[in-house]
Amino acid sequence: MTVMEQRGAYRPTPPPAWQPRMDPAPLLPDAEPYRVLGTEAAAKADPELLRTLYAQLVKGRRYNAQATALTKQGRLAVYPSTTGQEACEVAAAMVLQERDWLFPSYRDTLAVVARGVDPVEALTLLRGDWHTGYDPYEHRVAPLCTPLATQLPHAVGLAHAARLKGDDVVALAMVGDGGTSEGDFHEALNFAAVWQAPVVFFVQNNGFAISVPLAKQTAAPSLAHKAVGYGIRGRLVDGNDAAAVHEVLSDAVRHARAGGGPTLVEAITYRVDAHTNADDATRYRGDAEVETWREHDPIRLLERELTGRGLLDEAGIEAARQDAETMAAALREHMNQDPALDPMDLFTHVYAEPTGQLREQRDQLRAELEAEACTGPEGDTHR
Amino acid sequence: MTTVAVKPATMAQALTRALRDAMAADPAVHVMGEDVGTLGGVFRVTDGLAKEFGEDRCTDTPLAEAGILGTAVGMAMYGLRPVVEMQFDAFAYPAFEQLISHVARMRNRTRGKMPLPITIRVPYGGGIGGVEHHSDSSEAYYMATPGLHVVTPATVADAYGLLRAAIASDDPVVVLEPKRLYWSKDSWNPEEPAPVEPIGRAVVRRPGRSATLITYGPSVPVCMEAAEAARAEGWDLEVVDLRSLVPFDDETVCASVRRTGRAVVVHESGSFGGPGGEIAARVTERCFHHLEAPVLRVAGFDVPYPPPMLERHHLPGVDRILDAVGRLQWEAES
Ligand SMILES: Cc1ncc(C[n+]2csc(CCOP(=O)(O)OP(=O)(O)O)c2C)c(N)n1
């Protein structure tokens, strides 16, 4: 008997595990990213919401420009800009209720600020005076997370815990396209799906992970498609269309809050600036590509829609600009002041109670600082 | 004989040349990691390799450290010699499962049948003003894992020599590259053939009689400076650059301590559970009767690596080293 014949003869009743657990069709993202601006859907959008989004985008753009300028003046050690991605940043903060939580990646300072965190405190990590400048509990914003994708399981755990406690809380976790390759991304999505945790995973696909383009990051049809394998909904949205991002994220948050479980939202956008001020983007991409994306700029798109429909005039545009200028001036002023640092803080927050060793080391540093105060600091910073 | 003015190479350039020479010499050598291709690595150590050897030999991987090291295991199983780059010290941690559970012990698990010639390059240490997760000194974790070799250069020539040796090794080698020395230069002439340094040999960087500073990597230049400064106080310090943490060169270190009778271990990583404890114990075990004072440690504080604006208070500097040297006058004190 050949192997084939053997196979043919063997016809067991399929065990339950062979049955598809669900119809994957409703989980699949649409082939085209969802758009509102410039389409029929725009007529249905709330004009007030659109105007708020506009004001926030203009402010966000100005914030990015100001922070980038501060790196050139040596006031910020580094700044990963979200110029071109403001629609995603702003919408992520706006769709959350006060009791909800935001889990930002290192790039998402703007979302953190849009959530209400003080702009100077939000920049502490990047200025270098402390690792996290704000109290995470005050605005329910987790620390800006530098290792990629590691904040995602945290978001799942928090959302899960909230649900166990009977609280009506949603967590929105942000990650880049590159971060979706990390094991933590996979584990977070899987946990969230199995627990039906109220989480929204929000991928800003801005084309590159430092220098590596999406094609070298994944072979999936889209990052949103990855959701299907976990049994959760995947949604694809035009990340430069603020109204669309707001709508898709709102829907995902509502779905999570209603007990529907997690959603993976992929926003297609573009990182117009370099990875950070330390990066040389000309090594891996041409100007033409960047220019194409400038055409599809989030502020432009929304401005066109609003002015076209008579919801915004020159005066309104000017007012938004003024508002942004005021914010930038305040940020500049605060960042130009030297932060008052106490070196003894090195030991303050390592444990609830410092260990004996730490107390010894603290005394050592105190003695060094006192000696330095007498003789004056030496030229060499490492002395 | 005509002398041509040669531009001295930086440590980063020496590492690039080591990779290029190794790749040219052996088609089994493959470089991989995040941004190592088109960009040439965030520190430009892999600059030009993708162009010269093709993207199959110098590969931009997906962004996944466990994946990078895990696939390197498979590649090594099939006869390649992967050289992987972990972009920064703290970003190697996702790969620790692969490192500890597989890379370090594959030879042992398979009774020698499946050695893994993998080189793991890790830029490490502080002093460059990096934000959180960009300045860890993770050498103690690697040292505590049997089956790994751990080397760390302090000079441009050693960067070349140790990386070549690591790639040539039939065992996994972690090459800890001191970030803040990437742009340092010394007398190494990149036009001349550079020696491949055997792994496991320390070197006396500066002879002296009164005490030995035992150090490595980013702390070597600091110790050299301290030794110069100590002359004013009547101390003639010997500086031993370990170059290799595993295997450890007991011979060179102990010969030095026996000569001087006093020793201070200097490194950036924390002292509790850090490399200095192991080194001090070894020296004490072997040189007890030669010691005039306990072996002291000058290290970073036992705190998570601080933000850039505070790192100068954390890093062991010249003053802290001199202070320890002063405390070596044990008899006089007690
Ligand atoms: C675990 C880990 N590996 C490597 C890095 C270094 N790194 C910082 S940002 C970055 C690229 C991130 O790309 P992506 O996830 O697409 O986010 P984007 O920067 O585009 O917002 C890399 C590789 C890191 N921060 N964490």
Automatic annotation (TrEMBL), chain A:
- Name any one GO molecular function: magnesium ion binding
The answer to whether the entry has keyword Chloroplast is: no
Query: Which keywords label this protein?
Result: Oxidoreductase, Pyruvate, Thiamine pyrophosphate
Organism superkingdom: Bacteria
Family matches, as Pfam families: E1_dh
Record's keyword annotation contains Oxidoreductase: yes
- Biological processes, Gene Ontology terms: branched-chain amino acid catabolic process
Task: Outline the extent of the Dehydrogenase E1 component domain.
Answer: 63-326
Region: Disordered; residue ranges are 1-23
List required co-factors: thiamine diphosphate
PANTHER family, from UniProt? 2-OXOISOVALERATE DEHYDROGENASE SUBUNIT ALPHA, MITOCHONDRIAL
Which named protein is this?
A: Pyruvate dehydrogenase (Acetyl-transferring) E1 component subunit alpha
Q: Lineage of the native species?
A: Bacteria, Bacillati, Actinomycetota, Actinomycetes, Kitasatosporales
UniProtKB/TrEMBL annotation, chain B:
* Source domain of life: Bacteria
EC number(s) per UniProt? 1.2.4.4
The record's listing under SUPFAM superfamilies reads: Thiamin diphosphate-binding fold (THDP-binding), TK C-terminal domain-like
Q: Could you tell me which residue ranges the Transketolase-like pyrimidine-binding domain spans?
A: 9-184
Q: Which GO terms describe its molecular function?
A: branched-chain 2-oxo acid dehydrogenase activity; magnesium ion binding
CDD domains cross-referenced by the UniProt entry: TPP_PYR_E1-PDHc-beta_like
Which Pfam families does the record associate with it?
A: Transket_pyr, Transketolase_C
* InterPro entries in the record: THDP-binding (IPR029061), Transketo_C/PFOR_II (IPR009014), Transketolase-like_Pyr-bd (IPR005475), Transketolase_C (IPR033248)
Question: What are its cofactors?
Answer: thiamine diphosphate
Q: Which terms are listed as keywords in the entry? A: Oxidoreductase
A biological-process GO annotation = branched-chain amino acid catabolic process
**EC primary class:** oxidoreductase
PANTHER family found in the cross-reference section: 2-OXOISOVALERATE DEHYDROGENASE SUBUNIT BETA, MITOCHONDRIAL, 2-OXOISOVALERATE DEHYDROGENASE SUBUNIT BETA-RELATED
The identity of this protein, by name, is 3-methyl-2-oxobutanoate dehydrogenase (2-methylpropanoyl-transferring)
Q: Which organism is it from?
A: Streptomyces hawaiiensis
Query: Highest lineage ranks of the organism?
Result: Bacteria, Bacillati, Actinomycetota, Actinomycetes, Kitasatosporales
